[in-house]
Amino acid sequence: MLPVSVCMIAKNEDNHIEECLKRLRPCRFEIIVVDTGSVDRTVEMAHRYADRVFHFAWCDDFSSARNFSIQQASNDWVLIIDCDEYLENVNLVQLEEALSHNRDSVGMITRNNPYTVQGTRSIMSERIGRLFNRKYCHFEGSIHERVRTLQGREPETFSIPLTFYHEGYVEESDKRMRATRNLEMLLHDLNVKGPSPYLYFHLGQNYISLNDMEKAAQYYKMGLALNADPQSDFVQSMAETYGYCLMDLAKYDAAMSLKDKYGHLSHRADFVYLMGMLYMKKGELSKAIEEFEKATTLTAYSRKGVNSYRAYFHIGGIYETMGNLEQARIYYKKCGDYEPAIRRLRELQTAESVS
After folding, report:
1. What is the pLDDT of residues 120-171, one digit of tens each?
2. Rounded to whole angstroms, how far apart are CA atoms 301 and 269?
3. What pLDDT score was predicted for residue 352?
């Protein structure tokens, strides 16, 4: 058994927690569940799979609940998991090796988040700091809590071979309920602690959940103006999501201000793909093709397809718009089994046979 304790907080998660815990059990981690006031079958299900179950009086502070959970662990190494995150892949041998060389750093899991774009379901991957030694780190922040050193600094990180699928909130009503609750807590933090890039990022994310792109873009802009470290995952995500917000609002010129960050972010296919989208929206088609082509050469990405079939599809669409159907077909075929590309190839063939 690895000296790792999985620590979870839960409230009314009986639609998620059983699947989450069932997938964790074969790893033989210690499992600690802290319930914060469930009125459904969450506690009952937790007792079936967890080693120990505790109760914590909710106080509108996620860090307090998280830190209480890690205090209950038998091991100093703690892995933080949410009830709607299901284990997909793990290499326990590599994980043990990583722990032996990173005593005071934070391990970054990979989390795969489903989302829908243009009617097609896809996956966005992100790296999140979730594994650490409680002798060196803890949680800070009442909402969208994050791991910090006990001295309040940003910890060093290392990759770990753990991948989770994030089920998330399926119902739109659940999303809005959580977003409304989180907004109140975030605005309280802003009033008490003052502005920070991280807080502005999460305010932007929250307003996206509330379908208010104007407000989201406003907070992203303020967050980016504070010159946060462009190597931080959340800053990269903030810049890219800001661009998409402005694109949804048809504010293409404002979005092009992101060119100023090209030197810092163009190692990511997501950012280069975004620039291709913006050039395409502005009618600068040659530049759009150039960016999409560059995206296909990059290996760092979060959204599936931005460095392959999605980029190729847009290049095909541009060539089709320009009347170069031969090149359009070449790029549509590069998309493989991407349904929108297959459909365009079929429609082009039908149009050609009719004419």
Report:
1. 677 888 899 999 999 999 999 888 899 999 999 989 999 999 999 998 765 6
2. 5
3. 77
Q: Which residues contact 303 (CB under 8 A, 6 or more apart)?
A: 122, 123, 124, 125, 270, 273, 310
CATH of domain 266-355: 1.25.40.10
At residue 255, what is the residue type? A
Task: Domain ranges for the chain, please list them.
Answer: 4-166, 170-264, 266-355
- Residue whose C-alpha is closest to residue 131's, from 167, 102, 89, 91: 102
CA dist 196 and 279 (Å) reads 31
Q: Could you read off the pLDDT of 313-327 as tens digits, one per residue?
A: 999 999 999 999 999
Q: Residue 88 has what pLDDT?
A: 97
SS3 199: helix
CB atoms within 10 A of CB 283: 10
- Characterize the bridge pairing of strands 106-117 and 4-10: unpaired
Average confidence score pLDDT of the chain: 93
- CA-closest candidate to residue 37, choices 17, 59, 19, 16: 59
Q: For position 99, what pLDDT does the model report?
A: 94
- Same CATH topology for 170-264 and 266-355: the answer is yes
**4 and 30 Cβ atoms separated by less than 8 Å:** yes
Fold of 170-264: 1.25.40
Helix (H) or strand (E) holding 330: helix 325-334
Q: What is the DSSP letter of 225?
A: H
User: Strands (DSSP E) along the chain, which ranges?
Assistant: 4-10, 30-35, 52-55, 77-80, 85-90, 106-117, 120-133, 137-140, 146-149, 157-166
Distance of alpha carbon 28 from alpha carbon 292, whole angstroms: 44
The 10s digit of each residue's pLDDT in 255-284 is 999 999 999 999 999 999 999 999 999 999
pLDDT confidence of residue 353? 77
State how far the Cα of 56 lies from the Cα of 69, in Å rounded to an integer.
Answer: 9
Domain 4-166 has CATH 3.90.550.10: yes
Q: Given its phi and psi angles, is residue 122 left (phi above 0), alpha (psi -120 to 50 degrees) or beta?
A: beta
Given a cut of 80, whether residue 117 has pLDDT beyond it is no
